[in-house]
Amino acid sequence: MAEAAGAPAVDKSSEVYREARALVEAVLDLSPRLGPALVTAFERGVLDVPYCLHPDNRGAARSCIDGDGRLRWTRIGGLPIAGIAAAGTGSPMTDSGLLEALSYVSRRSDEGALEHHEYRTVNTGSSL
């Protein structure tokens, strides 16, 4: 994959980059056209979104948020990231664990939005 001109440097050795690249390449290998490739990827479980209830989603992949706030895979299902991702590094998700993970993401997003709003208000005199 080519990098865009002026794009920030990317750490190609990072686990996140290597996982993302494996997912993108696996999808692109399924069809020369992106639309059919995406449909096939979900049908085969090459793409699988943890906890997504959509009927086209396999639901075999599972994740958790670790103690450092990082997303970790507890099961990779059919995702093409075996050997890249550290699967099974978290505890199996429970209903209370899922609620805590969602709350964590919500709190982080809300804090970021509030900080951005306060910055804009203080530095530009405008508000949202």
Please give a structural write-up:
By secondary structure, this protein is mainly α. It is globular and about 40 Å long. Helices cover 43% and strands 7% of the residues. The chain is built from 3 helices and 2 strands, in the order ααββα. It folds into 2 domains: 11-93, no CATH class; 94-128. A hairpin with a 5-residue loop joins β1 (62-65) and β2. The protein has helices spanning 15-28, 34-44, 95-124; strands at 62-65, 71-75. A two-stranded antiparallel sheet has the order 1-2.
Number of strands: 2
Instruction: State the helix count.
Output: 3
Computed structural class: mainly alpha
Write down the Rg: 18 Å
How many domains? The number is 2
Report the portion of residues in β strands: 5-15%
Strand line-up of the largest beta sheet: 1-2
Residue runs with pLDDT of under 50 for 5 or more positions: none
The shape is globular
Percentage of residues in helical conformation: 40-55%
Question: What sequence of helices (H) and strands (E) makes up the elements?
Answer: HHEEH
Question: Residue-averaged pLDDT, rounded?
Answer: 82
Tell me about the biggest sheet? 2 strands, antiparallel
